[in-house]
Amino acid sequence: MAKGKVTLVGAGPWDPGLLTLKGRERLEEAEVVLYDDLVNPSLLRYAPKEAKKIYVGKRGGIKSTSQEKIHRLLLKFAKEGKKIVRLKGGDPLLFGRASEELLTLAKHKILFEVVPGVSSAVACPAYAGIPISDRHYASSVGIITGTERPDKETSSLRWGKLATGVDTLVVLMGVRMLPEIVEKLIKNGRSPKTPCALIRWGTSSRQNTITGTLATIVRASRRITPPAVFVVGEVVRLRRFLNWYESKPLFGKRILVTRPKGQAEQFARILEEKGAEVLTLPTGEIMPLGKEREWRALISSLSTYDWCFFNSVNGVALFLIYWEKFGGSLKGIAHVKIAAIGPKTKEALEKGNLTVSLLPRRFTQEGLVGEIRKRRIELRGKKVLLFHAEGARTFLSSSLKKRGASVKVIRLYGLKKTSVSAKSVLETLRRGGIDIITFTSSSCVDYFFDFFPGVTPKALIDGTAVASIGPVTSKRCRDLGLRVSIEAKRHTTEGLLEAMINPAKGK
Fold it and tell me: Alpha helices of 188-263 — where are they, by DSSP H?
């Protein structure tokens, strides 16, 4: 019988950036992924599309997958010869029952390996601005579980030694037992004045940190529900100075990004750096247009033109591919002036060693026409190439023709709707779990709502703020009955980010 391999991977506490490189590599190779309740679902994007992804989560007080069923699934897929990733939150060998699964695999002689993860015992305090050790406050650390096996007759926790035997005590899975834990610590000698903190949903946008002392923490945190990490010790005093994560400008915001595939991830990383939790639903996929023989002819004829206008970074990227492939000569087009619609487009052109002569202050087609008028650029009798996407607005081409230019429009690429599932996004929207939804083009708006036929746009995102990259996109949103709460003054992703962080400044 063929036997596969099981890799036990620690996913970290929630922030997807805390997954290790080796953990990601194993996910990318997986044929089956069995994942737990406190694993960020966004990590599943690293697994192949065709891989089986099976939820086997467990959480105290909630109906959950039995440990025996998990064992059966591991053995079933391993005996089928599959590469299996067992994805568990935090570090799986720290109160994660992982040893039970590994012993089952060992008993049946199934090959396995362990990829440790970042433990919530370390990461959650760190994200709350609490180092669990410090040369002035704490030279020892104890990590304990607040929930032992229910069938144990006596506790194996030695409270008489734990209470005063370590400087910092970190308790995992202890929310429901918090009153009893605090009582035992004080009863066994820990001062009621000892600083402590309860960190709920650590490393996520929902992180909530409550501080106090052993004498006050139970009352202060009585509405807190799991999951949470409890930290006891003088190190908690340092949070006042080291609270870096909760001070980020977009902390606490859950943002949905709808940019095209390949760009959504890049924008998501920028938002995450500012403290947001990001969901992505790539609405479109860029499809190059044109045949190679047509491109060869175009590149060879560039020297006969006076101006080239570029309307997007995507267009520049495709142009440069053909430019290099068909031997474009900078010397041959030294007289050709180049216009870019915005700074990112300009930057992309300059990376290809092309000099930009015209950049508008407003990064729109109207802005380009306005800049031409302001500079009194003469276009009558000039030959102009205009590169843009299929279905793009015709304002610029019409305006250039009105000024006497001979305009040839080159449609570099089109957008097609992606085939990704929007089910999880729909569920999150319906329960009010998204604070801001971002749109970076009119096509993103249309493609997004195409995912949800039969649902009116206003009803779908009722209560969610709409953030638009500029007036054209905003108009499309309003045409659909939506209220635009945030609009970028600078029509770039950086401008959109600025508008979300500081709406008054962004506008």
Answer: 217-220, 239-242
